[in-house]
Amino acid sequence: MISRRGFLALAGVSGVAATAAGCGALTAEVAGRLLTSALPPPRPFTVPLPIPPVARALRPGHYEVTQRAARMEIIPGTTTEVWGFDGLFPGPTFELRAGERATVRVRNELRVPTSTHLHGGVTPPDSDGYPTDLVVPAGHAAHGGGHHPVTVHTGAKDYVYPLEQRAATLWYHDHRMDFTGPQVWRGLAGFALVRDEEDDALPLPRGERDIPLMICDRAFAEDGSFRYPSVDPSLMGRPGVAAAYMAGVEGDVILVNGAPWPIHEVAPARYRLRLLNASNARRYRLELRPGGGFTQVGGDQGLLAAPVEHRSLPISPAERFDVVVDFAAYRPGTEVTVVNTLGQGLARNVLRFRVTGRVRPGGDPPCRAACRLRRGPNGGRRRPPGCSISGAPGKGRTRRGRSTACRSGRGAHWPRRGWGRPKCGGWPAISTIRYMCIWRIFSCFPGAVGRPVQRTRDGRTRWTSGHMRWWRSWCGSRGTGGGT
């Protein structure tokens, strides 16, 4: 007869074995059923990465977009009809400011009703894009409400976003009752980036080094059109998909910003990548080849309390990761591939970056940029610690007599007065900052422009405790941090 202790030990071993088996199964995970293309896929990493255009305001705080059909060359050599905002897939990117109300008029010129949802937005109910709050094209009747009451707007609707929320990477997409899946599959989605003073204050990559990346999978018919297993392909009658796809649909072509397995040239510098999984069901576990990692600085609802290092990123449908990748860690000419370790075959590839040997405008090496000085408050030209007179990285000396090298990682005090102000822009008043960590931050992010302090009511600048923790952790993790 087995003892109680023996029974518990046996049960524990069995549980561990079952758990290990389950975890092993996750490496071959599928979240939906694969729908294959009838059209031969293109060779990966031959199509340039498109960058969605930025939406232009009609006047401050007011935008207008039109949902309409258009033809795009997604698979080289053929065209695909997409349903897009302004006929684009992805739609235009909205650059918004926290606390500044934005009104977006959405016109519907498709043949089906739509409802537009700002995913992650803190939005009032009448602008939430509820599934039965429908915009119906002129001359068409509403469909897709089922047994639920339907609110109908003919032709267009104004969505009002107060944006009383932190900076974050959001996305907008169709949300029509019973038909969200197939209508997003056809292209009704795009980015909305909310920025605020906190985001501005951090020395994160900006401009062309701040890239939104919409990752999704699709399947294509022989004529280039999107394949989707709808019960009613017109999307006007009976909702639903074929029984085999009730758990979700996975395509066999991976698109990034609407391009199949694209390639993008990057400078040897840090880039901010705003990753969105806009797939119907597919999950990704993203990794970099031939090595490297991601530094996560934000998630679905905005900036993290501190950066988090990842060797891989598991990302589910609708999830966002705001990460920084340092391409300066690779030799010029290196091709860095983002792969999905949960995928098989071609679906294991996502996109590729080719590292060039040049830093584009706005990407001066941090030490050289910091050495281009304006005249100081006493009329003389001075150089900060860590820069030589010629502007090249070298050794400098503070008024306190401390010597520090540009890449030494040791901190040094800024004097309160007497030093000139760098021309590289976005810096706070040097005379109000006592610590060297501000400069070390620029060693972390080449070419970054930011205001890493907050301004008080009396006009002075100051550090916040949150910023200090964030930057101390960030710089210290790279051996470039220093005095605090």
Give the secondary structure arrangement, pairings included.
Elements (H helix, E strand, L loop, with lengths): L3 H23 L6 E3 L26 E11 L7 E6 L8 E4 L4 E7 L7 E4 L13 E4 L14 E4 L1 E6 L6 E7 L5 H6 L3 E7 L1 H5 L8 E11 L5 E2 L21 E3 L1 E4 L2 E2 L2 E4 L3 E8 L6 E6 L4 E6 L2 E9 L2 E3 L4 E7 L8 E6 L8 E7 L10 H6 L23 E3 L5 E3 L31 H8 L9 E2 L5 E2 L2 H13 L7
Helix pairs in contact: 5-6
Question: Which descriptors would you attach to this protein?
Answer:
6 helices; alpha+beta; Immunoglobulin-like; globular; five-stranded mixed β-sheet; 484 residues; eight-stranded mixed β-sheet
Describe the protein in words:
This protein has 484 residues and is α+β, with helices and mostly antiparallel strands. The strands form eight sheets. Strands 12, 13, 15, 16, 18, 20, 21 and 23 form an eight-stranded mixed sheet that branches. A five-stranded mixed sheet has the order 17-25-24-19-22, with no helix packed on it. Strands 3-2-5-9 form a four-stranded mixed sheet, with no helix packed on it. It contains six helices and 29 strands. Helices cover 13% and strands 31% of the residues. Mean pLDDT is 77; it is low at 7-26, 362-463 and 475-484. The protein folds into three domains: 62-196, Sandwich (Immunoglobulin-like); 226-355, Cupredoxins -  blue copper proteins (Immunoglobulin-like); 366-477, no CATH class. The longest helix is centred in the N-terminal third of the chain and has 23 residues, at 4-26.
